[in-house]
Design a protein that fits this description.
The chain is built from seven helices and ten strands. The protein has 264 residues and is of the alpha+beta class. The chain binds adenosine-5'-diphosphate. It is an enzyme of class 2 (transferase).
Length: 264
């Protein structure tokens, strides 16, 4: 009685009779569809900046070398090149994380140090924005896992808060002990997200506001990277958001992956 199955049916002669083979290809078709969708998204995301680049190159062929036009063209072309570079980097990170074994690397991760670097980085990044920051980091709380994956998870969430937060705005980042587990949370006073989008945010290439997100250079891969990185650490992204007020992206790292450096 199921209507969600795709079946492939083959009939072949079998002696004086016929043999009918029915195969359930639902999963296979679903994967093919996802693969096609993925390739079409990647092509689209790469073609958009390439079209802008080609447009400017053609314009520079025609125009007399007016310095103002050159300056504008140079700026636009650099932005598009950075955008393509970011996209390719994110695709590589995602591919590496997806291909990694489910039990991720068991490196000792000095999370407070990662937080310190991240804090310097975002303060620089947001130096021309009206944003205030508060980092609350438990200096004794380390964890085990993959440094590359966890760095991606922390960085993407904090960078998103900076990208999407309205100005003037406030961003709070915390890494604290919660009943022997480690809890990471980024809270922003940004635009918030409507409930209908929440469940889809970690899908590859999903963006709430494509135009705004494109302005910020995002291709909709960041949260997908976070989701996969957390899965490898038996954790899950939780998103609480109130439209017009702000959002909180958080996750909990299980106690057996935690290292409490003060107890050593
Ligand atoms: P992107 O590269 O577009 O930022 P992400 O996967 O990181 O992709 O995020 C997916 C979408 O989720 C974004 O396009 C944005 O619409 C929304 N989003 C992510 N973080 C925030 C946030 N802190 N506040 C509001 N919207 C957010």
């Amino acid at each position: 009685n199921r209507t969600d199955l795709t079946l492939e049916c083959r009939v072949m002669p079998y002696g004086t009779q016929f043999l009918m083979i029915v195969r359930d290809v639902t999963q296979q078709r679903k994967l093919e569809k996802m693969r096609k969708h993925f390739i079409s998204n990647v092509s689209h995301e790469l073609r958009t900046p390439l079209t802008v680049l080609r447009g400017y190159l053609e314009m520079l062929d025609d125009e007399l070398p007016d310095p103002a036009i050159w300056i504008r063209a140079h700026q636009m072309m650099s932005e598009q090149a950075i955008r393509m570079d970011n996209l390719v980097n994110q695709l590589l990170v995602l591919a590496r994380i997806e291909a990694a074994p489910v039990i991720s690397a068991q490196e000792e991760i000095d999370v407070p140090k990662l937080m310190d670097i991240l804090e310097h980085e975002v303060r620089q990044l947001a130096s021309n924005k009206e944003l205030t920051f508060c980092f609350k980091v438990d200096e004794c709380l380390w964890m085990r896992g993959s440094i590359e994956q966890m760095r991606s998870a922390f960085t993407n969430l904090v960078h998103n808060a900076v990208k999407y937060c309205n100005q003037p705005g406030h961003i709070e980042v915390s890494w604290q002990c919660d009943s022997q587990c480690g809890r990471f949370a980024v809270t922003d006073s940004g635009p918030g997200i409507l409930p209908k989008h929440l469940l889809r945010l970690t899908e590859r290439f999903y963006r709430v506001d494509k135009d705004r997100s494109r302005d910020t250079g995002g291709a909709g891969l960041g949260l997908s990277i976070v989701k996969h990185a957390l899965q490898h650490h038996r954790s899950e992204l939780s998103i609480d958001s109130e439209f017009g007020k702000g959002s909180c992206f958080s996750f909990i790292i299980p106690d057996d992956l935690m290292l409490h450096k003060d107890h050593e």
